[in-house]
Write a structure and sequence with these properties.
This protein has a domain of 205 residues. Helices cover 73% and strands 1% of the residues. It has a two-stranded antiparallel sheet with strand order 1-2. α2 packs antiparallel against α3. It is globular. The chain starts with a helix and ends in a 14-residue tail after the last helix.
Length: 300
């Protein structure tokens, strides 16, 4: 039973990270109908930014809590700047182009960012400092759930609450919902759609950066390629829950995380990805709109 609980919390931790990345996918798709395939690389850039900042602050002798907070803020701000710039350069000029054009642009931007970080850093895995200390009160259950798992779960829960409040009760959130429902009508009532889309990219990028920091500290290493794998998994989770649905992205992420954890624990780690993508195939066959997605009707 203890092993089952350990796998359960491991799956929740995976799902939490996937959720932070999947929210960026689903928010962008919900507003402009575009899959931002460079989003995984934003996650990777956030992890590298946190790594550089944390290394410098460690050398300067900053306390661990200050290093964690400053690295998280720096990663979120820097990744948001990348997300904002990518939207302006690679996606905005193609907003009214055929759907294949922005898709190719997104894939090209993903490859560009991968190689950019490869040249700027290294192709080897680099050790990431443990920014989350081991809490004394966690010692009795350390074999089931660790301190980093707890921080990841709590951070994800707080982010979900803040994001829900932001979308439901703030001015920018209402503008996002209006733009997602009908972009042209939103423009007619005075909403600056370009600013809304940019804000969506910025928020999604910041969430991905936080996920990059948390998982890098949890795993203890980073590499220029981590964004591709995490991005594909998060995209799978978003589709699983219903692309364009924020609750669906969270639900799909936790289902995917738990599936991977139990598949790894009871079958083999070699089949982790097989189970994950098999689940995606089944959802696409039997419920193409996802678990919480709404089927769309095309008018002729």
């Amino acid at each position: 039973m203890e092993y089952f609980i350990e796998l359960f919390f491991s799956g929740l931790t995976r799902g939490s990270i996937y959720a932070l990345i999947a929210l960026g996918y689903t928010m962008v798709y919900g507003i402009i109908g575009l899959i931002n395939f460079a989003h995984g690389e934003i996650y990777m850039i956030g992890a590298f930014t946190a790594f550089i900042v944390a290394t410098v602050l460690s050398i300067l002798g900053f306390p661990l809590l200050a290093i964690f907070v400053i690295a998280a803020v720096a990663a979120a701000v820097w990744s948001s700047a990348y997300g904002f710039t990518i939207e302006k350069l690679a996606y905005k000029p193609l907003r009214n182009a055929p759907r294949l054009s922005p898709l190719i642009s997104a894939i090209g931007m993903s490859i560009f960012l991968q190689n950019y970080v490869l040249l700027a850093q290294t192709s080897d895995f680099m050790p990431f400092p443990q920014l989350i200390p081991d809490f004394a009160f966690m010692d009795p259950i350390a074999g089931v759930i660790g301190s980093s798992d707890l921080i990841i779960l709590v951070t994800t829960a707080v982010v979900m609450i803040i994001l829900t409040w932001l979308i439901k009760f703030t001015r920018i959130g209402k503008a996002m919902r209006a733009t997602a429902q009908d972009r042209k009508m939103a423009m007619l009532v005075g909403i600056n759609v370009n600013n809304v889309i940019s804000a969506t990219f910025v928020i999604g990028s910041a969430l991905a950066a936080i996920g990059g920091l948390l998982i890098a500290s949890h795993v203890g290493q980073i590499n220029f390629f981590i964004g591709f794998i995490a991005g594909i998994k998060a995209f799978t989770a978003a589709v699983l829950g219903g692309i364009g649905s924020i609750p669906g992205a969270v639900l799909g992420s936790f289902i995917l995380g738990l599936t991977e954890a139990f598949a790894t624990g009871y079958v083999s780690s070699d089949y982790e990805d097989v189970f994950a993508f098999s689940l995606l195939v089944l959802i696409l066959i039997f419920r193409p709109s996802g678990l919480l997605g709404k089927a769309t009707i095309e008018k002729v």
